[in-house]
Each structure stands twice: as C-alpha cells, then as structure tokens.
C-alpha cells in the first residue's frame, strides 16, 4: 500500500485499459407474445392479447428500457386441429402493421417490427404500407420477412395450396428485390421513377406512392434456419431472428451466417443475429428454476402436447395419455393433418428419434413436448441473467436477444427494472438512445445510392 506525504493511504486510481478490445454491445428487442406456446394466458396476471392497452403497455416498457424494437408475429389463419380451433388461438390474431401504426403514436424512439408474409402478399402494396409506417414513425419501421409452409393458410387466398421450400424462398427473394426497387424509386428533389419488373413471380410497371422514407428501406428481419434461409439472410437481411440461443449452437450459427456475408460484399457488422429467448427472474437461482419449471408446465397444456405430436404422427392422438409414453405406432403417410407443415418431409425419422429419446430419458408425451418446444431461456437472479446475456454476446454466440415474456402485457416490467440497469453498469447496454431511427439503434447504415439499373428498374 502506498501513502501520501501525510502518511495516509493513497487512493488507488484505476485507469481504463486502452489496449483491451471494446466490449461488444448488447442489442435487446421485445416480442409481444400474443397467445402461443410461450404465453401463460391462464395466469391471473395475464391481460388481453388484442386490446390496444396491452400493446401500448409492452411497447412503452420496452422503450423505457431503451430496447431496439418491438416485434410482432403474425398468423394469417387460426390454428386448427380436426376442424376445431386450437386452444391457443381462441382470442384471435390482429394485423401486425395495423397495431404498429397505432403504437407509433404512443412511442418516440422504439423500433416497430411487423411480421408480414411474402407468400400471400404483393410487393407494391406491402412496400407502400411499410413506407407509410416508416414515414409516420420517423424512421422506425422493420419488416420480418416470412414465408408460409402450410396448406391450411393457403386456403384463405385465391391461389390456395402452398409452395415448396425452394419456391417459397425464390418468391421471397424476388418480392424483396421489387420492394427495394420501389423504395429506391422516389429520391428527394426528383420525380418518381417507374419500376419495371418482369420475373418468374411478379410482372409489374409501377411508380411508388411515397418518396424516400427516413430509413429509405425498413430494417429487414429474416427468420429462416434452412440453408436457403441462411443464404437469403446473408444476401440482404439486416437482422436474423434466430432460434439458436445456447452458447454452443449460437456460436456455430453466428459463425456460419456471418462468413456467408463476404460473398455478397457485406461485412459482419452489416447483419445482427438476435435469437429469441425467454427469461424467469427470482431472488435466488433456485427460486427462479422452480418458477421456470412451473411456467413450462403451464405453457404446454395436455392438449398442446398432443397437437404437437400430431403434427409429426399425422394421426388423431386424442386417445393417448399426455402424461404417458409416446405412441408406438408409425406416422400416417400423406396425412391431411400435416399437409404442408415443416415436419412433413421427415416425419418417420423425427418420430423414431423422439421415441428413442423419450425412452432413454423416460419422458412422457407432455415432457417431450416441453423439451422440444423450449427456447433459449435465461433463468436466475437479475445478476446471473445479466451476466449470462453479456457472456453470450461477448462470446459471439449472438448480437443480442429478442425477449419473449410469458405474461402479457406486464411480463417485461421486471426485466427492464432489474436486469437492464445491471447491463448498463457493465457498460454493454445503452443508457439512452443515440439516434432517432431503428437503423441508428442497430448501428446499421441507411441504404446507399439509387439503383438505376437491374432486374427491377
């Protein structure tokens, strides 16, 4: 210990290590869960899933926590099983863009991300709707580009049916290409250009209805995990909504997608990877773990567990005990129950693997469904949750997380009040917004010069 001239201990001054690499910043977004296998809609503290006050509360909580954006999923058809509405869809599904246009009026900085389908929409109309949201919100719009794999949704539309995976991505890529051309076609101080496009999916000649919006293009989010989906993200997405949240799986996915960017002339920082994650907080880690186990039992009801297996088995399993063993029968070939679902390609292999796994670990149908539908989850005290999130980002397993609370609309409050301040103390999360647009929050550049040539020009 050193002393000063009076003999008193000299105060130690710790200067920052200027040779150390800067700590990676954590990005956070909030998912309004609606009613799905994440929400505990039977909880007494659960509010309305469609009343605007619920969207307003969650959005304002996220903005108070300085989150990047609010994320809304979308379903174009209520889920059904054997002609009956699934118990998770009994409250309905509002339109994402309609909700976010209203949320724009009660927030100031929070990004607004809508999931909208590229399989059953048209580029001109959707480009106009997102440009409108970007103008009305001052540059906070984002589009989560998704495709649809199930035939049931297709019955709601003129084309009917569904597209194979490769065709869905070909349509989505051409869709985004045309939308980008429309967003580019009315620069400041110039008359709008006519976008002429003739391709396999779309044939149009159109002028945009609005000039450049504050971001020019909304932030593009992509959620596919297949090889086609990863390539689609590397080619042009700004954010990947990933399901790979564990440290090991997250690092592998992060590395794979980021390395694909170079072939399209992009840098690693041009694309953010944000896995979905749930969280449960407690005063002790043990308390949080106990609460998390109870929540998972509430999230996966007996009916939900049976419906989950029916997607693979393709047969009515209502006669099976959800707390009993998995069916010892094989899936039904070409079952109408699973027409168009993602599992349909390898249902026999999936059933065999699940049956072997359940036998090895002595899992019931419900316990297997709980395990298979689990997301990355941060469970523990606020301190341990903050440390775990920071560790994932510093290890490049993610650039941040899209948090999915289990209660609507108050499920995010505790995280904002108890975890966000700890991330700020660690120096890995903003104390305030530095810019006004969603691209500012995410550190993403505004798209560059107008494209005068190309397939859509």
From TrEMBL:
GO terms for molecular function: monooxygenase activity; oxidoreductase activity, acting on paired donors, with incorporation or reduction of molecular oxygen. It is an enzyme of class 1 (oxidoreductase). Residues 1-20 are annotated as: Disordered. Residues 45-395 form the Luciferase-like domain. InterPro entries: Diverse_substr_monoxygenases, Luciferase-like_dom, Luciferase-like_sf, NTA_MOA. SUPFAM superfamilies: Bacterial luciferase-like. The keyword Cell wall biogenesis/degradation does not apply. Keywords: Flavoprotein, FMN, Monooxygenase, Oxidoreductase. FMN binds at residues 115, 169, 226. Pfam families: Bac_luciferase. Its EC number is 1.14.-.-. The keyword Oxidoreductase applies. Belongs to the NtaA/SnaA/DszA monooxygenase family. This is NtaA/DmoA family FMN-dependent monooxygenase. It comes from Streptomyces mesophilus.
């Amino acid at each position: 210990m050193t002393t000063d001239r009076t003999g008193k201990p000299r105060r130690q001054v710790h200067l920052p290590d200027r040779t150390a690499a800067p700590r990676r910043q954590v990005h956070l977004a909030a998912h309004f869960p609606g009613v799905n296998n994440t929400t505990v809609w039977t909880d007494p503290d659960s509010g309305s899933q469609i009343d605007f006050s619920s969207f307003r509360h969650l959005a304002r909580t996220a903005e108070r926590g300085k989150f990047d954006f609010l994320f809304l999923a979308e379903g174009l058809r209520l889920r059904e099983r054997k002609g009956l509405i699934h118990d998770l869809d009994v409250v309905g599904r509002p339109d994402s863009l309609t909700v976010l246009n209203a949320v724009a009026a009660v927030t100031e900085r929070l990004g607004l991300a809508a999931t909208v389908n590229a399989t059953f929409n048209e580029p001109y109309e959707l480009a106009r709707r997102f440009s409108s949201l970007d103008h009305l919100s001052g540059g906070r719009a984002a589009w989560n580009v998704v495709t649809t794999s199930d035939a049931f949704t297709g019955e709601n539309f003129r084309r009917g049916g569904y597209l194979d995976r490769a065709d869905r991505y070909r349509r989505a890529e051409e869709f985004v290409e045309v939308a980008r051309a429309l967003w580019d076609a009315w620069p400041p101080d110039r008359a709008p250009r006519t976008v002429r496009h003739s391709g396999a999916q779309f044939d149009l000649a159109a002028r945009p209805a609005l000039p450049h919006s504050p971001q020019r293009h909304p932030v593009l989010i992509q959620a596919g995990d297949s090889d086609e989906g990863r390539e689609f993200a590397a080619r042009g997405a700004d954010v990947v909504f990933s399901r790979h949240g564990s440290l090991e799986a997250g690092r592998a996915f992060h590395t794979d997608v980021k390395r694909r960017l170079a072939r399209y002339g992009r840098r690693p920082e041009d694309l953010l990877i944000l896995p979905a994650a749930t969280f449960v907080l407690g005063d002790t880690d043990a308390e949080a773990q106990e609460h998390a186990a109870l929540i998972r039992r509430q999230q996966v009801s007996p009916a939900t567990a049976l419906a989950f297996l029916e997607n693979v088995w393709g047969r009515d399993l209502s006669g099976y005990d959800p707390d009993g063993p998995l069916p010892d029968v094989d899936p039904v070939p070409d079952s109408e129950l699973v027409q168009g679902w993602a599992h349909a390609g390898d249902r026999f292999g999936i059933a065999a693997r699940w049956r072997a796994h359940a036998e090895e670990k002595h899992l019931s149908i419900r316990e297997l469904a709980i395990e298979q539908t689990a997301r990355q989850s941060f469970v523990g005290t606020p301190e341990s949750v903050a440390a775990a999130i920071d560790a994932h980002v510093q290890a490049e397993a993610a650039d941040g997380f899209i948090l999915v609370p289990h209660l609507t609309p108050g499920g995010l409050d505790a995280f904002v009040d108890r975890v966000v301040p700890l991330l700020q103390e660690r120096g890995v999360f903003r104390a305030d917004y530095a810019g006004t647009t969603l691209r500012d929050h995410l550190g993403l550049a505004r798209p560059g010069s107008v494209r005068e040539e190309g397939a859509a020009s």
